[in-house]
Write a structure and sequence with these properties.
The chain contains six helices and seven strands, in the order βαβααβαββββαα. It has 201 residues and is of the alpha/beta class. The protein has one domain: Alpha-Beta Complex (Maf protein). Bound molecules: inosine 5'-triphosphate. It is an enzyme of class 3 (hydrolase).
Length: 201
């Protein structure tokens, strides 16, 4: 069975491909199906934005799709960048600028780092919306992952804010975990697990 994941983010695609492989399903991304629209994500929540993407793409392709809207919420920044995570520093999807901006915003607060260099608690959040265009029915789920923002980029795996997201239980950043390790604990994996549990019922 083939699942269309309505995303142009290759980092997300890789993680979904591995997660769905365990369920014996193959993943196709927007690049694979040759439809990569510019979508204005003007919702107020992760769920709303995931639904906007799912609806546009499911209708266009006339097939069921799963859309992912996700981001990082930093406690000391009152939940920023949140739904603006992809364009935090102004340029959509520029991970290195976004990470710089995050460190700059936290450095303005003059927080004393802890022994691991950590400055604030944070959560990764992921909303998944599965949409069937014939009925317009959706399934909506959310997953999250708790960690800390550390003051130094570390690790080469993953994408986005992974190099700054520190996991005390591993003494590593998310970018120092390989994809299988990340897929055991990530916000995306936790959301997908909830979706799967609803679908098998
Ligand atoms: P699509 O909308 O096409 O799926 P996108 O990259 O624009 O791709 P989002 O609007 O959901 O996706 O933005 C998500 C941003 O949040 C992304 O650019 C990362 O900076 C961050 N993010 C989400 N999940 C992440 C993860 O697992 N690790 C690190 N950063 C993540």
């Amino acid at each position: 069975e083939i699942i269309i994941v309505a995303t142009k983010n290759q980092g997300k695609v890789k993680e979904f491909a591995k997660l769905f492989a365990k369920l014996n399903k193959q993943v196709r991304s927007l690049a694979d199906v040759g439809y990569v629209p510019e979508i204005i994500e003007d919702g107020n929540t992760f769920i709303e934005n995931a639904e906007i993407k799912a609806r546009i793409i499911a209708r266009h392709l006339n097939t069921t799709v799963i859309a992912d809207d996700s981001g990082l919420c930093v406690d000391e920044l009152n939940g920023a960048p949140g739904i603006y995570s992809a364009r935090y520093a102004g340029e959509h999807g520029n991970d290195s600028l976004n990470n710089k901006k995050l460190l700059a915003e936290l450095s303005n607060l003059n927080i004393q780092p802890d022994e691991n260099g950590c400055l604030s608690k944070a959560q990764f959040k992921c909303a998944l919306v599965l949409m069937d265009p014939t009925s317009d029915k959706t399934i909506q789920v959310e997953g999250s992952c708790e960690g800390w923002i550390t003051n130094q980029l570390r690790g080469e795996h993953g994408f986005g804010y992974d190099p700054l997201f520190y996991l005390p239980q591993y003494k590593k950043t998310m970018a120092e975990l390989n994809i299988d390790e990340k897929n055991k604990i990530s916000h995306r994996a936790s959301a997908l697990k909830k979706l799967y549990e609803i679908l098998v019922k």
